[in-house]
Each structure stands twice: as C-alpha cells, then as structure tokens.
Amino acid sequence: MSKTAFLFPGQGVQYVGMGRDIYERYASAKNVYKNASKVLGMDIEGLCFSSTEEEINRTDNAQIAILVTSLAALEVLKEKEVRAQIAAGLSLGEYTACIYNGMIGFEDGLRLVQKRGKYMQELTPSGDWKMAAIIELDAGIIEETCKKVSEETGFVAPSNYNYSGQVVISGEAKAVDIAIQLLIQKGAKKVSFLKTSGPFHTIKLEKAEEEFEKELENIKVNKGEITVIKNIDGLPYNEDDNVKEIWANHMISPVRFDKTIEYMKSQKIDNFIEIGPGKTLTGFIKREIKEVNLINVNNVESLEGII
Question: I want to staple 156 with a disulfide (CB 3.0 to 4.6 A). Which of 40, 42, 175, 205 is the partner?
Fold first, then answer.
C-alpha cells in the first residue's frame, strides 16, 4: 500500500490572488475563507485576492493568508477523500499540519497563527534585517562563519536548514552581507535573498516568544490522528511532548526541515503532496529523495488532477 505525506508551506510563498480559482470553484473552499474571516474579524478574501504585495508581505498578514489558502485546498481534498498518513510543514506550515491531524481545532489554529504573525511583526527588534539562502555549502562551515561574524561585526545565525544543500541565515543586514562574502569565498555555489526579512527562528525573537507563550495557555491541544513531524528536531510528535513549549521554542529555534526530510525518507513515503501556494517543499524533497511522486496543489487544475 502506498504512503502519502501532505506538506504545507511557510511564509515567503504568498502572492496576491493565491487560491482564488479554488475559492470560486468549490463551495467548501469558499466556506473556509468566510469562516476564517468571521473567526478573526478580518477580510481574508480581500487580503488574499485584492490586497497589495506590500500588504500581503507583512508577516502578520502573510502567515494567516497562507494558512487559510492551504486549509481551503485541504478542505476540498478531505471532501473528496484524499488522505495522508504523515503531515509536515515549514515553520508556519506546521500549524496547518496540526490543524489537519486534529491536534488543534480550526478556530484555535487560526487565532494562534494570527497572534504568532502579529508578535513576529510587532516584536521583532528594530533594525535592518536580512535573510538569505546559502546553496551547496556544508552546514558546519556556515555555522562557524556566522559565529565568527557575530563576534566581530553583528548578529547573524542559521535560521532554516531546508535540505542538506541549503541553509538560510538571518540577522543584521550588514552582518548577513559580510557572512555571504565569506561563504562565497569558502565555496557556496549560490546565494538568494528571501521575501521575509526579520531575524526569524533566532534568539532575537525572544520577546515575541514570551508573548506567544501566553497565548498558548488558552489553547487546547488534542491527541493527533495522524503523524505530524516537528520542525524543531525532524521527529514525530509523541505523547510525552510538551507541545506548547515546543511551539513557543520554535520561534527562536532553527527550522530543521532537513531532518524532517530524513525522517520521511526512512518511512518510505511514495507520494508527497504540497498543499498551498508555491512549490518550495517539493523542491527540497526532489533534491533528497528519488523515485517518488511530487505533487503541488495550488490551483483548480492541480487540485482536480489529484481528485
């Protein structure tokens, strides 16, 4: 029997108009947007379909917009009885996975992500921040270089380990630029800057983490129905985990999607279905796991192809 994993994207894949054709074609998808708007007291349809790039790229807007867009497509798949045995997400996407498997309810999940985005937007220390993906260089070299630059120039640290050949660094713009120069000298094949620009998943978000921790006190966490893999260590949630502590720590800890991929590879998954805007996560999987089906569900055509 073949095994399927659902993958859910994180911040950075947002764009104005994402999910619109699915919204217009399927009543169940439209209901997700309308219910989300009611729960959050904001116009999610307007944000996703007719805002500006500047508006949708704000952290507080981007996170909730991506979450609802992914959940709307997911609702159609559930309606058509397309199911997965494992779910995983990148940063924000882990919350989509936890809503899918029932660890948190729809309304709690929406409110939690809204607060998460708000605190990440408002409580990021003032300054000029950058995030950049370093391609094809050993993670140890990247870590050592970031440590050296942090001691001599300004803060920079690894924030995302996306797959074995890509690490995202985050920090003060000047320090990131210096680190990039050094990393190119040390053999990095390519560097690309991210749409997001805060020092996310680093200790610089400590204030945001503290406020988020207070929000988590009001959330009910259930036993999940299927396996969800944690970003913080690339292992499945289990009964002994302090879930709320993990979610809080995740804001200041690097995303280990590289370890998530290792775990999914060990589980011999046949089908990877990325649900939501972009093709980021299947792109990471493609570089690490061969001879599997990689599918993206981000419009009506791809959704109907799955069904």
Answer: 175
